[in-house]
Amino acid sequence: MGVFDRFKKGLGRSRENLVGKVAELFTGRENYSPEVFESLEELLIESDLGVDLSLDLAEKVEARLKKNKVSGDDLDAVLGLIRDTLRDELRGLTATKEPATGSPHVIFLVGVNGVGKTTTAAKLARHYQNEGKTVLMAAADTFRAAAVEQLGIWAERLECDIVGHKTGADPSAVIYDALSAARSRGRDVVLVDTAGRLHNKQHLMEELSKMRRVAAREDETAPHEVLLVLDANTGQNGIQQARVFKEATDLTGLVLAKLDGTAKGGVVLSIGRELGVPVRYVGLGEGLDDLEPFDPELFAEALLTRE
Ligand SMILES: Nc1nc2c(ncn2[C@@H]2O[C@H](COP(=O)(O)OP(=O)(O)OP(=O)(O)O)[C@@H](O)[C@H]2O)c(=O)[nH]1
Ligand SMILES: [Mg+2]
């Protein structure tokens, strides 16, 4: 399956919801009443695009529809207009420079409980292996019982190295060992799976700082990437989480996991817009291959295409 089809499949629920409701809203309306655009605005807000962005988009779509005299019955044309408007918005959100790289390249995965950090670590391992790189996973979630085993199962499937300690151990010690192992074995990428931490738990945030310091002691440019994993189902709540994490630690990017399970795919847009942190990957399923680098063009296209 090509990348576009994977986006389309992953965004299936969001697309069905949005396209269905746009069809309902516009079909049979030749003269656009203000109510139609108010409803469009509501629909975009429901899709978790955020209030400001939804307002903006609805206005721009209204102007473009009227200017081009598009009939509400021409669903493809209406969708096309919304899609183009969205795409224009998205372009501005993701124009970022590539993150710094290192040898080994060290990536931290952080976020609150259950968002998809461990699964994303495994998917990223696959992503790098596909590029011909060797990977070592660091099981720095020493908090939850069975966390090391969970990562171990992935490592076995991926046939990659894993470094872990016992539950309750100091996660910084895991980082230290993982980085020395990666260096002596010549591994290209170290993926650090961390424990789920509530953003309002001060000591956990301090623990994260310590992990960063230990990594930086080994290589002053490490960690090269700190990816905040968010669950797309949390909608606008994710923005609040992201904001607090961003204050506590330097984030280089976001991963929006579980986009396939939500009808609120628009959350990608509002998070990027409000935080100024680029969305680097989206999770589109539970399997190892269900991670895609975020591509705004494909995203807008896949979200607003009629089958
Ligand atoms: N549908 C879908 N499920 C996902 C995705 N990413 C993760 N999951 C599922 O979400 C659940 C939690 O994933 P984990 O990777 O264990 O989450 P975590 O953040 O490591 O959780 P804690 O370590 O407990 O904080 C699992 O059942 C995963 O299969 C995704 O992109 N799509
Ligand atoms: Mg985990």
Provide key terms for this protein.
elongated; 307 residues; eight-stranded mixed β-sheet; binds guanosine-5'-triphosphate; 14% strand; single chain; 12 helices; binds magnesium ion; alpha/beta
Helix coverage percent: 40-55%
Query: End-to-end distance, in Å?
Result: 16 Å
- Overall SS class: alpha/beta
The small molecules bound here are: guanosine-5'-triphosphate, magnesium ion
CA radius of gyration is 21 Å
Unreliable residue stretches:
none
Helices and strands, in order, run as HHHHHEHEHEHEHEHEHEEH
How many β-strand stretches? 8
Name the strands of the widest sheet in spatial order: 3-2-4-1-5-6-7-8
**Residue share in β-strands:** 5-15%
Largest sheet: 8 strands, mixed
Structure description:
- The model has no long low-confidence stretch (mean pLDDT 89).
- The chain contains twelve helices and eight strands.
- It is α/β, with parallel strands linked by helices and 307 residues long.
- Helix 1 (3-10) packs across helix 12 (296-303), helix 2 (12-26) runs antiparallel to helix 3 and helix 5 packs antiparallel against helix 12.
- An eight-stranded mixed beta sheet has the order 3-2-4-1-5-6-7-8, with helices on both faces.
- Bound molecules: guanosine-5'-triphosphate and magnesium ion (MG).
- Magnesium ion binds next to helix 6.
Strand and helix map with partners:
Blueprint: H1 3-10, H2 12-26, H3 34-46, H4 51-67, H5 75-94, E1 105-110, H6 117-130, E2 135-140, H7 147-158, E3 161-164, H8 171-185, E4 189-194, H9 202-218, E5 225-231, H10 237-248, E6 253-257, H11 267-275, E7 279-283, E8 291-293, H12 296-303
Parallel strand pairs: 1-4, 1-5, 2-3, 2-4, 5-6, 6-7
Antiparallel strand pairs: 7-8
Helix pairs in contact: 1-12, 2-3, 3-4, 4-5, 5-12, 6-7, 8-9, 10-11
This protein binds guanosine-5'-triphosphate and magnesium ion (MG).
